[in-house]
Model the fold of this input.
Amino acid sequence: MTVSHIPLFPLHTVLFPGGPLPLRVFEPRYTDMISQCLKSGHGFGVCLIREGTETGPAAASHDVGTIAQIEDWHMRRDGLLGIEVKGDKKFMTKNLSVASNQLLTAEIEYLADEPLLEVPPEYMNLVDLLEGRISQMGKRYAKTELKFSDASWVSYRLAEVLPLRLSQKQYFLQLEEPMQRLEHLNDVLQHLDMT
Done:
């Protein structure tokens, strides 16, 4: 397992591998962080906040997060920095430190890539549901490569687009087996009466 040291951006959202995420950046610690990431070509870590807020003192976040790679950036009409990121590899935080400006950095260990598996026939209902959802969302997934036969990709996108609690999304992020994720998502969808 590769170990790196990265800046963290704790958010009230879960970023999944392969998923798009638009962000509005206004705090100096994060505009500086984005500037450094753009110069170095490196990403930053997105972790779901466990306790605290997105602004002010550094928030406590979950240990498992996703590397965010910056795909595009622009200055918004409101004068704030807008960035588009894409989820890359999952990681586990090991050692956290807080800078004087309250920017969190962490030593991280990358988690293993998931196996490339085809979606089994019994979960094709989930693929159909996902295709419908993504076509309705239009612009958000316009630059995303669609992989409707890939169990890992399908399970991550479903966890991303479904109306789940953040704690449920974090649970699905932390699962390491795509088939297990599909099975649990199928169970959740039956309770939501969406299958």
Observations:
- Residues 44 and 68 are 5 Å apart (CA to CA).
- Residues 3-110 form a domain with the Archaeosine Trna-guanine Transglycosylase; Chain: A, domain 4 fold (CATH 2.30.130.40).
- Helices lie at 28-40, 124-137, 151-161, 166-174, 178-192.
- The chain has a mean pLDDT of 92.
